[in-house]
Structure to design on (414 residues):
């Protein structure tokens, strides 16, 4: 089968890691994956390095003529200097030849309600993607959803079966038009699904889709890359290192984790934060205000996650919104780390309270502080949670299991 994978995200995170892993798994299973992505992103570049066909539906830096995005839809690697020159000439002609029309159009758009402008932009994107998908046919299109995407509508117009895969939980958008699109676009996919049952149930409740059109497949990791710690044993008086990994964004609840350490104020407990994002300075300022500020360390972006997992005694993920699976949870379990999570969305589904770790109320620093104290004071329980986590990761969160389950969905649509 020739399988397409569509994404509109420019950054790099759990959903992009998931998509790259899935495409490699599909390729290794003897099928042909093709990424429909944004040229210049890390995902696009890594897919090319993995010899996965890449089709650019737009570039990292949007170029427009008269407010209309210029999208080549050219397979990666096929661009030549002649193509670039031709594009530049075309852009120049567009600007020179339509200056008056542009002024009129801008005046017209300025008075148009936001909802109508949003709708017009989405219609334009549907038509552009329809042309692209017709020129690069696939048997099934997998669309990564981080909100709403109109790629499913384009697939429907092309007669291509599509799978809409939600990588975040539903959220409230202040725009009425976007809220309508969140619901309506779900119906454009042949199958809608997600990487946790909580995520699927939430989107099904929002969209009203029947259960028969919804699927759940847990995220999977390449377990061959992870080796469980030889031992988590430590004495009660030893240092207890907590690892927090992810984008520094309000959704992750890292501010709650820092406040929990401040309430605990235990010199044994060390917090290591690995990641970068918009909340970087806010979190550092908050950490500096805590009585235990000297035990809170920010590492920024790190690629050597195996080293950090090996050095840690526990992983904390106190997310308060958006989280659809918690990729780092599966990784931490594979390393044999006990985990502490909030009870938001899918996290209790992944981290079983009292079996692989502890689950606390979302946004509650006091409860999180008590959970940290409990693990720091009970080393034997950490060992038990870690062993259970390794077993759960092997049974539920393997890449092979994920790829096989997704392939069953794709095959069922042909």
């Amino acid at each position: 089968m020739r399988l397409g994978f569509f994404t509109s995200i420019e950054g790099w995170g759990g959903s992009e890691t998931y998509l790259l892993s899935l495409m490699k798994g599909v390729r290794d299973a003897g099928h042909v994956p093709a990424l429909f992505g944004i040229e210049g992103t890390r995902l696009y570049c890594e897919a090319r390095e993995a010899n996965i066909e890449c089709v650019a539906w737009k570039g990292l830096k949007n170029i427009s003529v008269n407010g209309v995005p210029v999208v080549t839809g050219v397979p990666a690697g096929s661009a030549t200097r002649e193509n670039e020159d031709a594009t530049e000439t075309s852009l120049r002609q567009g600007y020179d030849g339509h200056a008056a029309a542009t002024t009129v159009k801008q005046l017209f758009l300025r008075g148009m309600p936001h909802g109508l402008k949003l709708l017009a932009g989405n219609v334009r994107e549907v038509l552009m993607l329809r042309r692209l998908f017709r020129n690069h046919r696939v048997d099934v299109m997998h669309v990564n959803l981080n909100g709403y995407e109109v790629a499913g509508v384009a697939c429907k117009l092309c007669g291509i079966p599509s799978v809409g895969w939600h990588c975040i939980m539903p959220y409230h958008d202040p725009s009425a038009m976007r809220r309508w699109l969140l619901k309506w676009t779900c119906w454009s996919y042949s199958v809608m699904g997600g990487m946790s049952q909580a995520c699927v149930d939430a989107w099904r409740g929002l969209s009203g889709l029947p259960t028969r059109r919804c699927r759940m497949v847990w995220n999977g990791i390449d377990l061959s890359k992870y080796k469980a710690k030889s031992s988590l044993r430590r004495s009660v008086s030893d240092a207890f290192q907590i690892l927090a990994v992810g984008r520094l964004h309000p959704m992750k609840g890292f501010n709650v984790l820092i406040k929990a350490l401040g309430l605990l104020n235990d010199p044994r407990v060390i917090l290591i934060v690995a990641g970068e994002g918009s909340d970087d300075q806010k979190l550092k300022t908050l950490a500096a205000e805590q009585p235990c500020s000297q035990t809170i360390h920010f590492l920024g972006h790190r690629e050597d996650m195996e080293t950090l997992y090996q050095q840690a005694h526990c992983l904390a993920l106190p997310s308060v919104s958006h989280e659809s699976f918690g990729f780092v949870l599966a990784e931490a379990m594979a390393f044999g780390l006990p985990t502490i999570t909030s009870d938001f969305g899918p996290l209790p589904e992944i981290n079983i309270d009292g079996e692989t770790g502890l689950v606390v109320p979302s946004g509650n620093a006091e409860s999180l502080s008590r959970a940290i104290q409990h693990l720091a004071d009970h080393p034997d329980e950490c060992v038990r949670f870690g062993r259970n986590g390794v077993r759960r990761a092997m049974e539920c969160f393997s890449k092979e299991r994920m790829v096989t389950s997704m392939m069953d969905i794709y095959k069922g649509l042909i």
